[in-house]
Amino acid sequence: MNEHIASPLLSVPSLYVVATPLGNLRDLSPRARDTLAAVDVVAAEDTRHSQKLLDAFGIRARRLLAVHRHNEQQAAGQVIEWLAQGRHVALITDAGTPAISDPGARLVARVREAGYTVSPVPGACAAAAALSVAGIVEGGFRFIGFLPAKAASRRTALMALTSERDAMVFYEAPHRVMMCVADMAEVFGSGREILIARELTKLHEEIAMMPLMDAGAWFDADANRARGEFVLIVRGAEASERIDAAALRVLGLLLDELPLRTAVRLAAEITGAPRKGLYAHALERGR
Ligand code: SAM
User: Does ligand 1 lie within 6 Å of residue 103's CB atom?
Assistant: First the structure.
């Protein structure tokens, strides 16, 4: 623990990547608060949204800069200029940790390339919060974030994950969550377990673990359940669902000579690997 550090700012001009609450304001750490109050500029995804957070803590930002997906490169130039003048800059997004399915990564990369210090002020992150209550005992996890919005692309993306052995962490928007979960049941198989983490840290927080086959009924049981913000965690594939390198090699050879469906059928017969998974790999290969 570094309790001896009195000032929240480093001795050299720096960019601080500051996590903000997902919903519950008390999740803003004391260090985040001190950093936001001390820096010369707060770069924010949506300045109006962030102004409310700053107001709630009585923080008067000296200057606010909007940094969103469409102006990140330009904003990076401005931030680097300020750093060159010896100023300190904090980056925040609307909720959680910047650069995690949020703007920030480009800015961070540019600032580091320019030779300035980038320092994290860690805190809330929806993926980490959901993982912390998932009880995934074995294996690691793979952060996927948002799947493609269009149904066909979403299915293709899911198919490419059928053999993933680690738990997969997804972010999903409320208007797509039920369709997404239905696709997951179809692609991964309805017996796979899913953790649905809804409205984390907020008044209507709900966390439920179930086989994918039960997820539709879970949503249907209460119309409010399809509202709000979601993290979905799907368990990784069991050994029996995975496709090993030998099966992939057989599939590859067959795909060189035969139409996709025939190649997949034969590869499944020859290797004993699951047809659905082979099909997914065949589609991926053809992309
Ligand atoms: N940077 C953020 C983080 O650290 O988690 C994520 C930003 S991303 C634009 C927004 C997505 O994060 C939402 O669509 C949802 O999937 C997830 N999320 C954010 N807040 C959440 C909450 N309170 N409960 C569940 N999921 C949340």
Answer: no
